[in-house]
Design goal:
- By secondary structure, the chain is α+β, with helices and mostly antiparallel strands.
- It has a single domain, classed as Amidase signature (AS) enzymes (Alpha-Beta Complex).
- 38% of the residues lie in helices and 16% in strands.
- It is built from 15 helices and 17 strands.
- The strands form 4 sheets. An 11-stranded mixed beta sheet has the order 1-3-2-8-10-9-16-17-13-11-12, with helices on both faces. Strands 4-5 form a two-stranded antiparallel ribbon.
- Strand 14 and strand 15 form a beta hairpin.
- Helix 3 packs antiparallel against helix 4 and helix 5 crosses helix 8.
- The radius of gyration is 21 Å and the shape is globular.
- It starts with a helix and ends in a 13-residue tail after the last helix.
């Protein structure tokens, strides 16, 4: 993205930090510029739900004072970022996209990953729109409205971290935080044409992030450059990835079968080009992908429904109607169904781990196609029209079940709406994913999709 295309804030995080550390810009000027840009342009996208204006400016002033005293301001000095509205921000009420929680007391502390980022000089400037309680793939919220795709505001941004993806894609901020249970980072990142990372389950602390389905939830970043994504992830993770592996040494394969159906010829050709560059002709099938998707859906529904059941019994009508019906249905699932889903999950996870004894990185589409229009209720799957909202996670839900890391990689293409790939690794193998993503970026096959419309 260029400054002319997306406004005055379209600078990468590491570039902003370098300027602030060197005194070429102040953290206050960066933060106030971002806030002004959000106020001027986000009416078009509805990605932001709250601006943390006074607190963000105060933190920026403190950082500028530290720099003036010669102190180290951190690797992300003065870099503004946003958080999906389920991360605790000290002094703010964490609503998880719902009016149900608005009466809660403000958070006493930042979420762990937010605290780590701000300790390195980053500054939280806003909370970002989401599906209520993270239950959805479209960021259509009865309380806070629909988030629109910056590449075409008539289209969905994806969800449930749609506000995070849209804010980055629009150039309002260089990175943002989201959460992923069944695709909630990967899908909006792909549909909005930015980079997104679902880390290995359990690797990055979730403390201070409102849960959805605790046995699947992870938190992770989205960014408009692969370098920024890596740096932000390392800060969130609390450790460096170190040297990345040589891509030529990695065993890379493409997922076929379930993951090769229902995508267009152009999308297939784009993946062909990626695999050709990676010098791989290997195609493998992930066993029982359809059952894995079903099991992931059932576990999510059951855990989410159980979490909310006490409140639903008292205040059901305050929920977004779409969320309410899904949570109530999940709460009523028989325990035997959940047990069977969990048994299958163990079997499926073992099968994926077996695949990683022979392969280092698996490549698959993140979505069946570009973002649907907001007024488009269906997409075509297996030759039939099916609900667009319910089926956007067709390719992300099966992968969620295994808890492996996935890097959502924006595909470069000359026109049309963005598309994205899932780069899938073994547990703890994020370094391999960053190596492949970096190579695809250097080859011009993957990059953050620039906006083609002006504001």
């Amino acid at each position: 993205m260029t400054q002319a295309q997306v406004g005055t804030t379209a600078r990468d995080a590491l570039g902003i930090a370098a300027d602030v550390r060197a005194g070429r810009r102040t953290a206050v000027s960066v933060v106030t510029g971002v806030i002004a840009d959000i106020e001027a342009r986000d009416t078009r996208y509805n990605s932001v739900t709250r601006i943390f204006g006074p607190a963000a400016v105060a933190r920026a002033e403190q950082l500028d004072q530290r720099i003036a005293r010669g102190e180290d301001p951190g690797v992300l000095a003065g870099v503004p970022f946003g958080v999906k509205d389920l991360f605790d921000i000290a002094g703010e009420v964490t609503t998880a996209g719902s009016i149900v929680l608005r009466g809660n007391p403000p958070a006493a502390h930042d979420a762990t990953v937010v605290a780590r980022l701000q300790a390195q000089g980053a500054i939280a400037v806003a909370s970002l729109n989401m599906d209520e309680f993270a239950y959805g793939f479209s960021t259509e919220n009865a309380h806070t409205g629909v988030t629109r795709n910056p590449h075409d505001p008539a289209c969905l941004a994806g969800g449930s971290s749609g506000g995070s993806a849209a804010a980055v894609a629009a150039g309002l901020m260089p990175f943002a935080l989201g959460s992923d249970t069944n695709g909630s980072i990967r899908l909006p990142a792909a549909l909005c044409g930015v980079w997104g990372l679902k880390p290995t389950f359990g690797r990055v602390p979730r403390d201070g992030a409102y849960p959805f389905a605790a046995s699947l939830d992870v938190v992770g970043p989205m960014a408009d450059s692969i370098g920024d994504l890596r740096t932000v992830f390392e800060v969130m993770d609390g450790r460096s990835l170190g040297g990345l592996p040589d891509v030529a040494s990695l065993r890379i394969a493409r997922l076929g079968g379930w993951f090769a159906r229902n995508i267009s010829a152009d999308f297939t050709a784009a993946i062909d080009a990626v695999m050709a560059h990676l010098n791989s002709t290997k195609v493998i099938e992930l066993p029982e992908a359809a059952r894995a998707r079903a099991a992931s859906f059932l576990i999510t529904a059951s855990e989410g429904g159980n979490l909310h059941l006490p409140r639903l019994r008292q205040r059901a009508m305050q929920y977004d109607p779409a969320t309410r019906s899904r949570l109530m249905a999940g709460a009523m699932l028989p325990s035997a169904t959940l047990v069977q889903a969990q048994r299958f999950r163990n079997w499926f996870r073992a099968r994926i781990h077996e695949l990683f004894s022979h392969h280092d990185v698996l490549v698959a589409p993140a979505t069946v196609g570009p973002a649907p229009r907001i007024d488009q209720p269906t997409i075509v799957v297996e030759g039939r029209e099916v609900s667009a909202r319910a089926n956007l996670g067709l390719f992300t839900q099966p992968i969620s079940l295994a808890g492996v890391p996935v890097l959502s990689t924006p595909l470069a293409h000359p026109s049309g709406l963005p598309l994205g790939l899932q780069l899938i690794g073994a547990p703890g193998a994020e370094a391999a994913l960053f190596a492949v993503a970096g190579e695809l970026q250097r080859a011009g096959l993957a990059r953050c999709t620039p906006l083609t419309t002006g504001d």
